[in-house]
């Protein structure tokens, strides 16, 4: 941005510079989709997701249409959002009455230009 500002002076030069920077921005796109998993109760697991875009998109996960709570929302959560955008389970939780990890997952990448949704991936507990 500084080289752009140095070429001209005044408001017109700044507006032209901002316009060019925005043209280089791009909407998110999913470059690595999650795959179906079958995991034993109590074992760790990872649902992969990688997104590209400019500015770098934020990633959120949804299970059966509901937003997944991760360690960023609750430090005691057994689910972690990795810097890559993948969803890591410290251990798969599965009980007689509660099956909080079993279901269909998608990752959603967003920036100011839009959003991209991954393919569905199922996580089944063996």
UniProtKB/TrEMBL annotation:
PROSITE patterns assigned = IG_LIKE (PS50835)
For molecular function, the Gene Ontology terms on record are:
cell-cell adhesion mediator activity
Q: Which InterPro entries match?
A: Ig-like_dom, Ig-like_dom_sf, Ig-like_fold, Ig_sub, Ig_sub2
Q: Which UniProt keywords apply?
A: Immunoglobulin domain
An example Gene Ontology cellular component term from the record? axon
Superkingdom of origin organism: Eukaryota
Q: Which SUPFAM superfamilies match?
A: Immunoglobulin
Instruction: Decide whether keyword Hydrolase is in the record.
Output: no
Q: Where is the Ig-like domain?
A: 28-124
* GO BP terms, alphabetized: axon guidance; dendrite self-avoidance; homophilic cell adhesion via plasma membrane adhesion molecules
Q: Could you tell me what this protein is called?
A: Ig-like domain-containing protein
The organism named in the record is Electrophorus voltai
């Amino acid at each position: 941005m500084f080289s752009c500002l140095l070429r001209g002076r005044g408001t017109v030069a700044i507006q032209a510079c901002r316009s060019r920077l925005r043209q280089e921005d791009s909407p998110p796109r999913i470059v690595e989709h999650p795959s179906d998993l079958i995991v034993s109760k109590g074992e760790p697991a990872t649902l992969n997701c990688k997104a590209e875009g400019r500015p770098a998109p934020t990633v959120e996960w949804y299970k059966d249409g509901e937003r997944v709570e991760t360690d960023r929302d609750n430090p005691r959560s057994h689910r972690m959002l990795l810097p890559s955008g993948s969803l890591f389970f410290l251990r798969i939780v599965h009980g007689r009455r509660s099956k909080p990890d079993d279901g269909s997952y998608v990752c959603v990448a967003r920036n100011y230009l839009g959003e991209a949704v991954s393919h569905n991936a199922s996580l089944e507990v063996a």
